[in-house]
Amino acid sequence: MRERGALAILLGWAVLLLGAEVKPRLAGDLLRANVAPTFHFVTGRPLENLKSGSTVTYDVQIALVNDQRVMEARGAERFVFSYDLWEERFSVAQLTARGSRSARTTVTNLTAGAAEQWCIDRVGLSFAGLDRSRSYRLRLEVRADGPRRRERVDPATEPPVSLATLIDLFSRPATDRQRAWVTESDPFRLDNLK
Amino acid sequence: MVRSILMPLWTAFALMLSAAAAVGWAQDPAPPSAPASAPASAPASTPASAPGELNVNSRYTVEAIEFVGGKKQVRSEVKQMMDREVGQKLSQERLDSIVREIKKEFKSYRVTQKVTKGSKPETVKVTLELERRGVEILGTSEDFKFVYSSRNNFSFGGTAALDITKRFDVLVGAFTDNDLSVDRASGIRGGFQFKLFGDHGRVRFVAESLRSQWNGAVLTALAGNNPEQVPGIYRERQTFAPELTVQLMPSLSVTGGVQFNRFQTQFPQARFEAAHLATGAVHFAQEFSGSGWNHFLESNYRVRTAVAGLGSDFDYTGHTGGLRYSWKDGSRELLIVDFRAGALNGRAPLFERFVLGNSQTLRGWNRFDLAPLGGTRMAHGTMEARVRGHWRLIYDTGSVWSDATPAQVRHSAGVGYIKEGLTAVIAFPLRDGNITPIVLLGYTF
């Protein structure tokens, strides 16, 4: 139940104490995340589901939090993973499409690590209007849902997943069916980023 | 003896077919859960690769699709939906439709889907497997039920399997039964079971603690019996039965084990006796599907033999066998023919003796009128035909006897209303003289 979600978040915090697995980097006017090779989310039950031929939906969010752990800005994207049973490689489709209904992107033939990295690289947040001299931490949160029940998306009739939907999703604790991975960076100032 | 039972069965079979044809069972409307044709979500032909599919495996062709449900079978409509997927590109949407149909049929189960590589390149195999969700009721009518008989009052109880892990269950049960054996046995049951060899084997340890109550007819019959032939009544009984079941083939399983019975006999003085047994069973079940019709054949053989080496105070061997045929339209049984027989050699405790005249056999007869002490030989045949909706015609014939008493074949007939777990039967003994019907009500969970 909720306790399991809370436990996942606590474990994430425990990882934080051992060393940051995520670091911020600037990409134009967006802030993105670099993750350590030790950070993985294509694991456990979601990976079992993928290798059973199902798809798994991952929601990925990065957020800037201040010293009081209050969120100042965030960006989120939704991805659907599948595992090619013959090629033994992962395929990822990005469902969110910022500003365009037809911008859904798919990549194939990736290893698990490359697929994870591809997702994280596509999540960015705008820090316009924030105090660049203040201290922030970058929080990366990934949630995996159970095997996706609705596999087919018709772009003509269905709008892409909105950022508001994902913000709403990340505002609630992970449910019993969800797995969650959370990690935070060390404190940093936007002014010091290159 | 067998011939005298089979002949009336055959006659009843012909009569029931005539009656069923007269009222037109084929015109019976299909229930909502059994669509007459494939749902719209499972079209007969589909595009080679649907646009918008997010699963990379949707470009592969389904080589085979299999349902794994143990003894459980899907309806013929669902089977047809599954068969239509073979040769098509993998579609999660259509698989979901099939899963939904299976879930409608097996509500207390979850359905897991697994897609694996096929035997040829660019093909995949789909396996849809039933998994218990939380608590499963062991068996069906045999284990978890409520039965009321207008002659013998209530019986109820059952056993639940509590999932501890995917492979380990704890068994907990309680029951009072005044239907299947000579006594009313009331007690509790507990144990555990492990799955082995994937899901093809099971080790089970079950213990029971029972208390028996006896009908006056039993006590009267015992008073005139030689205790060397029929042992006396007992008050308490404890059993412990470890057993191993292995599924050799999808349709064939074998079971072997031991059963320790300890019970407190009352006469000539109160003392504990033991009947420790080696047990074995073979079970075969196979469904033969046609176009809209399924024929289900099930047979079993069971042997129980007391083993002196285990410290048994009794020396006997019991054999029982049965054959059951059912003709189904989807999940509805149109016709059931069941034959069973048994033989008991040696001096066996009362709980081993055969009983007819209960909620399953010779319905309409009271078991205490037929053989209050049970018998050492038994043969029985049943025929049930669904005539309209949930109504059934029932005909039973059989005999229970012992070496010292001659066999006498009895017959009974009845009408039943059977819908899902609910059964209501009014049955009459076919005999000369006074005929008193027996009302049977049952509910299986």
Description:
The complex is a heterodimer of chains A (194) and B (445). Chain A contains four helices and ten strands, in the order αββαββββαββαββ. Chain A has helices spanning 2-18, 44-51, 112-121, 163-170, and strands spanning 22-27, 30-35, 56-66, 71-84, 89-94, 105-110, 125-126, 135-147, 179-184, 188-189. In chain A, strands 3, 4, 5, 6, 8, 9 and 10 form a seven-stranded antiparallel sheet that branches. Chain A has a three-stranded antiparallel sheet with strand order 1-2-7, with helices on one face. The longest helix of chain A has 17 residues, at 2-18. Chain B is mostly beta strands. Chain B has two domains: 2-25 and 134-444, Porin, CATH 2.40.160.50; 31-132, Roll (Ubiquitin-like (UB roll)). Chain B has five helices and 20 strands. Residues 20-51 and 134-142 of chain B have low confidence and may be disordered. At the A-B interface, strand 4 of A face helix 3 and strand 2 of B.
Instruction: Quickly give the structural class of chain B.
Output: mainly beta
- Any idea how many domains of chain A? 1
Q: Helical stretch count of chain B?
A: 5
Helix content of chain A: 10-25%
Provide a compact summary of the structure:
By secondary structure, chain A is an alpha+beta fold. Chain A is built from 4 helices and 10 strands.
